[in-house]
Amino acid sequence: MKKPKSYFRAINVLTVWFALIFLNPGRLTAQRMEETGEKALHKDKFLPLKIRKGFTQSNLFGHLYLFSTPDSAMSVEAILKHDQDFQLVDRELLSLGMDDRYHWIRFDVMNEGPGPQLLVSNLHYKEFSDLAFYVVDQHDQIRFRQEKFSRKTHISEKPLLTRYFAFPVEIQPCQRLSIYWRGQRQHSVLSMPLKLYSKAGFTEYLFTADFLLYFSLGIVAVAFILTSILYLVTRHALLLFYAGYTSFYGLAIANLEGFLTQYFSLNIPFLDENTSIVFISIAGFFMVVFSINFLQIESYAPVLLFKIAKIFTYISFIFIFYFWLSPFSGTNASLSSLLSLMTLILVAIMILYGIFRRKYEAFLYLLAIAPFFVIALWFATSVLFHYPRTWLFFEASHYSSLIEIIILGAGIGYKLLKDRDEYLLQLNRMQKNFTSSILQTQDMERQRIAADLHDDLGGTLATIKRSITDLMAESATPGTRRKFENLEPLIQKSSDDLRRISHNLMPPEFERIGLSGSLSQLIAALPAVPTKFEYLCSGNEQRLPKDVELNAYRIVSELIQNILKHAQARRAAIQLLYFGGFLRILVEDDGLGNNTQSNTQSPGLGLKNCLLRADYIGATLTRETSAGGSLIILDIPYHLAKDETDI
To answer: If you count DSSP H runs as helices and E runs as strands, how many of each does the chain have, helices first?
Structure first.
């Protein structure tokens, strides 16, 4: 038994010795292990996204790796040998700034579901000078290749119908795939916001994204159309500036979303890649001029701030033409971002100053612009100072101004209504002042005439009467004396008429006896022929301001004269009814009423004067006529009459 053991041991030793000398399998095995281990090490560097049943979407945060190279000729095969150069992206949204190198992004996907899955890798960005997409399996075999895409690639030339760039990825159970994107953009900021969807998730995303886009553009279009129509009607400059802002903001959004180029193939001369910055610059210009007019800073802000705002509008206008006519470049993109930042700062200063002055427009503007201001400031700082962006920023950036447009649209409507009310109030005050001047002038003239009649003509009649009396005493002829006696009643009647006219022009002791007493004296002095007037006062008399009572007296006096001249009435009545909240004056007669020819015509000068006085004291005057006569009602509210006289 010992011999066989020794024999087999000897054979084993010889075999190992022969292998070590002639074959050196350890060296070969070590080399293979080293190569396999290196690849495994590189493969394990990339944390795969594990896809399970029910997967819908992922923003790939923590699974994206970046490698940048200035070599435009480096193929995907060469990139596969540079796996060790890829670095994990530590930001939620990949923004590469103004870097015109070729940027490779890689992420790995592993299907842990029970069956094959159809995925969609979508790049939410379209401004590329060059774009390529690759799918590589775990054996470094390229399974899918798409190259030579750019911002000019039409939607019909893409594998999936979307405004951006989306590519299908089919993955089998337990399979691991590596997805590579290569993007490059010249002269401007480059972002590569990537998401991975299931097929159903991508369809749902497209529906939601298109709905939000069309809804947003619809709101912008409605705001533009309505404000344009209102501008044509009112010629209010604020509406023109708002329409300009909404229209170019909408065009900028439509261009950034690929709506103009992908769906309409719109190609504006001299623009091309300048389209977005030109549209945004024009929107910024309208934003500044709109802010100046909406906030009305000229009326309260320092002159320096107003001048700076006006000068900035001219500078913005110059830059618009510069961006339009000059070739697209990194300098232009930076200037556009700087111009947008300065626009926001200037508008913010105007808003803050308005808030300091407690202007409601400033508070409304702050509420409207806050979301857009945050997003725009975030964008400007990300461009100028490389502040990181997030998916929240990306998804809210295109729709933040919708809140502003809606709130400012409502604010403009409110402002126009408020301005109209203020204008009507000011116009009413001017009318009141004008009416007051007219009526005061009339009253002053009445008072002057009454004084002249009483003092001058009354004195003259008294002198004539005394002279006639003296002549009667001196005359010895009976016939002559009889003639003088016949003149005495005429002179007496003239004196009575003069006193009555003078009293009507300015009632004596009006302040003491008030409206009721003065009307009572006026009606008592009227003759009974051809019209007999009656006077009635009911209720607890309440004194009104002198100006109100005097104008009410003038109205009733004018109505009495109209009855005497035109109504042909046998009887008439004046009633003062003191109610709890207002005074009602009724003037009625049994005259011609609606049978008079003048009733079908416009009101005469006397009635117009009554209406003017009634409106001045805050009263309402209504007229009712019938075949049996006419009735005029004058209602004077106590509190309104007081308020109107205080204006």
So the answer is: 18, 18
